[in-house]
Sequence to fold (120 residues):
Amino acid sequence: QVQLVESGGGLVQAGGSLRLSCEASGSIFRDSAMSWYRQAPGKQRELVATITTVGNTNYADSVKGRFTISRDNAKNTVFLQMNSLKPEDTAVYYCNAVYYGLNLKRYDYWGQGTQVTVSS
Fold:
């Protein structure tokens, strides 16, 4: 069983920065694509950023140039550096791991979420 534990959320003023961390238990981290999602009140969960097993990254248009996703395989941890934060970035941020088993079955794992609140 894989567990994902997020940390680093909090309250910050507009224009500020936060760094989220997500530590994974288990042995599949290195072979998993890792993503950050977010869900604002009354809205659907949306993909923020993804990093593949080889380090390729992809971002939502709304965060390009402001957020950076990275991973440290030695520490089983994925990070989301968030700069120039805006009130519209306020949401619960979730860590996600996608792993494909030997039978190509997809396994999705989610963290419990961490609240990010950006005040204007």
Remarks:
- Residues 30 and 73 are 6 Å apart (CA to CA).
- The mean pLDDT is 96.
- DSSP finds no helices and eleven strands in the chain.
